[in-house]
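To fix ideas, we reproduce below a protein record of this kind.
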Amino acid sequence: MFFSRATKLISSQHSHVSFARQRMRSSSSSTLSNMATPSSTNEVSLKGMWKPQLTKIVSTIGPTSEQLPVMQELVKYGLRIMRLNFSHATEEEVELRCKNLKLCEGRHSSTLGVETDKNVRAILLDTRGPEIRMGKLKGDFSGHETIDMVAGSTITLHTTKQYEDAGSTETDIYIDYPKLHKVLAVGSKVLLDDGAVTLTVTSVEDTKEFHGNVTCTVDNSGELRSRAGVNLPGAETDLPAMSSKDKVDIKYGMTKDIDFIAASFVQSAENVREIRKYVNECTEELGLPLGYPVPLIISKIESATALKNFDGILEESDGIMVARGDLGVEIPIHQVTNAQKEMVAACNAVGKPVIVATQMLESMAKNPRPTRAEVSDVTNAVYDGADCVMTSGETAKGKYPVETVGMMNEIISSAEQFSIARPDLVGTSLGGKIFMNKTDSGCNEAAVAKASVTAATKRQASAILVLASQSSTLPRLVSAYRPNVPIVTFTPSAKMAKQLIIHRGIHPIVGMLGGISFHKRPTAAINYAKAMGFVESGDDVVIVGIEEDEVEQFATMKVTSVP
């Protein structure tokens, strides 16, 4: 069973007209005439009416985007989660990027006057992972040398220290995986440097326990650089869940209060359990307070083995990243889109967040406008039901990082609006399939969450206001039922807010209801939502919350108009 609810129209972030009054009713009538009218390109502001997109943006921060002025613009234009790529980032770079993100002004400080939490933006630590790589090229002292591989030639792959020290050549290449000969067979494929050069195995010294040679034929001509990545499509390796570098990086990241760990090259559910166990050990070693929220684990699916074990990985993970780069090398590239759709739908069905990543607006690393195919790619990720879409090199080292995030936000807005104007074309699967997590969907909070979404749809509400406690799962469950309006969530802590931001539709407000009695919170919540620009006078809103006392837990839901 999967989601069948189509997402309602949300307004552009730049709109200054009431969200409730702008929404388009589901219809099969043509919208082509509307598309022919140039859209408004008003400058994004941190004040005034604000109708944020439901699908979030994860942006990789790098040399061209790490300085405060650029990062402030990225925050203003829609960055919700900062990705730190620990395959490349140094400790000094991480320190700078974390510091500057905290300094960026968001709506908390610009409209509510909050100084302690200037913005609600999360940090995702992306591990390098237990990769297999080539060795350094012979004589490559600069790190920029290459060797030419010629189609039809023969090459031998070695795993001994002798060849590591000697350096790789056109005829002999060192691979840093001692059991290479145990996982390959005659006819197997070996892909070097993301598939730039493909090899076919012709013979294997499989009688040796370690360091058996593997002889291959070069399938296509191409250049190879030092330390290029190696992919073994379909091979079952015994790589660990984390490399020694990953462990150092994760522990260091926890001292920077990271919110998510994107675990690279996860192969099985056991890998996820190992990472979680290590995170808990780090919590004790670092002396973090008892009960302090640890980083959530987002498992990156980027191998054929991970696809085979996907159900178990999803069950153990807090979320999933569809990492299409290595996945497109590991499986036939024409199957990547199909795999993406299945994984997104599976995550939607159990109410766990999913990020679609890799080359979404890749051409904007060099150009101020994306290709039409890239626009379609982001649009279809929104239609599939992704909680987040991600930029990589476009914002880390590209020429147009701010324009990239702005363009992605516009694409998201257009897709979310069109889904309601023409549900007959988008289909009924927008925003995911029917939420059916048997553990969660049968609980009291899930029942209240479902009722709030139903009420919001019927009353054409502009927003759902969620009054959340520290331990509450209510905001996540409201998101799981895929409402078509922002889920304005009042949280008691910034940490909780940052870990909720990954979910589609959730826009947290931190700490504003503390010290207010439960019965007075709805009025206060409306006032703060109005101040933040989510709603305006005359809009309908749905307010939902869970109250606990020493005896029982009870839910409240209210549908009202904004005064």
In short: The first helix runs from residue 19 to 22. The radius of gyration is 25 Å. Confidence is low (pLDDT under 50) at residues 1-27. Residues 332 and 441 are 36 Å apart (CA to CA).
